[in-house]
Amino acid sequence: MKKIILGLGAFGSVACYTVLPTIFIRTFSKRIVKTTSQNGLLLTFDDGPNPQYTPLLLDLLKTYKINAVFFVVAKKALQHPELIRRMQAEGHVIGIHHYTHQSSFFMTPAMQIKQLFKSKQILESITNEHVSLYRPPWGHFNAATLKNANNFQIMMWTSIFGDWKVQTCKTSLLQQLHQARCDGAIYVLHDCGQTFGADQDAPAHMLQTLHHFLEQAMQEGQAFTNPHDWKRQYVHS
Length: 237
Ligand SMILES: [Zn+2]
Description:
single chain, TIM Barrel
């Protein structure tokens, strides 16, 4: 009996630090952005930069004259600073997706502060620009995240599609991208397949589908939100 009570106590403590804050913050917090409140769609890409897929994505975005937000893993940014500079030069906005792609569930407050500020320092030294956007990997928060990220604007999403799986890209991604179209929408896609649970070559299929989507959406007059315009209006930093 004592073991069961201790077990329940431990489970409760873990839940109070991880899952419950995540549900609460994502449902109620005014500190996170879940829509741009602007006309059009905002495209965001997580988990890069990746030397194989990110350049192809940048080429595609350039073709359609669309600017996006890249939530990058700072350790990978250190390995490929030229890709970060290219994003910046082509008008994209760069945000933080931790130094390594780790869930906040498994971080003490001190570890999370280190992940955030090390990433900020790396990205600012590459870009010579203030970096203020943050998206925690897997959308996981812990009880200390809001306090730790007090100086950052946290951006979540309206639509996430499972594009880290090849099968999803091949079967339902195109339809999902069309169905989720609405003003203020924030889309999450992934330009790297090396994250735990992802298929390595999923970005190749995502890119193919995104190309089809952009071609069709543009023909139908779909507007895309420029992240710099949104930032100027909504992010005070
Ligand atoms: Zn991620």
